[in-house]
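Figure 2 data, in text form.
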Amino acid sequence: MMKTNFILLCLVSALLLSYAPTAMPLTCSLSQLSSCADAFANGTPPSSACCNNIRNALPCFCQYRNNPTLSGYINSPNGKKLIANCKVSLPSC
């Protein structure tokens, strides 16, 4: 009887662990990139704050690329220059 209870407890524990909450959903906000506005618009060298924000926002770039309003900035010569200057690789989408 005790062995059966132990096995049942293990199964229930495994089941509960399999339904553990996952990571919080990704929230992408353009305000993350406000420090990069001049670099995107004018091609000026990005600040270190801009590059840090670009690195932090990398998971959002697929959403940005799929947005018709934003994709032009990201794929523009200034956008590509900014990404190169920050030494990051954009995710493939």
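Caption note: Residues 2-24 have pLDDT under 50 and may be disordered.
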